[in-house]
Amino acid sequence: MIGGLSNGFGQTILWQKCFGGDSIERAYSIRQTIDEGYIIGGFSYSNNGDVIGNHGESDYWIVKLSDNTGITESIKRDINIYPNPANENIIIEGLQAGTIEIINLQGQDIKKIDVSNEKTSIDISKLFGGVYTMKIKTNDGIVVKRLIKE
After folding, report:
1. Model pTM?
2. How far is Cα 90 from Cα 101, in angstroms, rounded to an integer?
3. Interior angle at CA 140, CA 108 and CA 78, nearest 5
4. What is the b/e burial string over 1-13, where b = at least 16 CB atoms within 10 angstroms of the residue's CB?
5. 109 contacts 46 by C-beta, under 8 angstroms
6. Where in the chain are all domains bearing CATH 2.60.40.3080?
7. Distance between CA atoms of 109 and 133, rounded to whole angstroms?
8. Using only C-alpha atoms, what is the Rg of the chain?
9. What share of the chain is helix, strand, coil (3-state, %, to 5)?
10. Pick from 107, 135, 115: which is nearest to 36 by CA?
11. Is 137 exposed, middle or buried (0-12, 13-18, 19+ CB in 10 A)?
């Protein structure tokens, strides 16, 4: 099974990765994750390579690939969001410049904010109560955090 990405049909391959062995491998579903990695579902008839013992005619694989340009752990620790849970406003600290997307559980973008200050207040009073994902994009990469709206 091969996962890969190009910048268009017949264009330059941006990355590729091979999984499996020397028999038949097929990827049936490829989805981009919220952290801009990928999850791939497929199967393998191989009994060697990355496959450690085939347990029947074929084995199903689910592979999670991370974005190699992800943000470093030290930068993740420097970005603070509070209060969380929150009802009216949240404060983002430690982000020099970037974009924040608030995404609901259905994967829909609810709010997008451009940030250019060390400390930014965001009004979340109009959001419905529940769990949201905050996708924080900086020049250094992407940080994904959870937000609970009371």
Report:
1. 0.57
2. 13
3. 85
4. bebeeeeeeeeee
5. no
6. 73-149
7. 9
8. 20
9. 5, 50, 45
10. 135
11. middle
Number of other CB atoms surrounding residue 79 within 10 Å: 19
Answer for the pair 122, 136: CB distance below 8 angstroms, yes or no.
no
Give the DSSP letter string of 10-41: TS-EEEEEE-S-SS-EEEEEEEE-TTS-EEEE
> Could you report the per-residue pLDDT of 123-145, keeping only the tens digit for each?
999 999 999 999 888 887 778 88
Mean pLDDT, residues 36-47 taken together: 74
Which pair of structure tokens corresponds to residue 35? 């952290």
> Distance between CA 69 and CA 26 in Å, rounded?
27
Which of 62, 88, 81 has the alpha carbon at shortest distance from 120?
81
Q: Quick one: pLDDT at residue 91?
A: 94
pLDDT at 5: 53
Rounded to an integer, the average pLDDT of 70-82 is 64
Establish how many alpha carbons lie within 13 A of residue 18's alpha carbon, considering only the half-sphere containing its beta carbon.
Answer: 7
The CATH architecture to which 73-149 belongs is Sandwich (2.60)
CA distance 53 to 46: 8
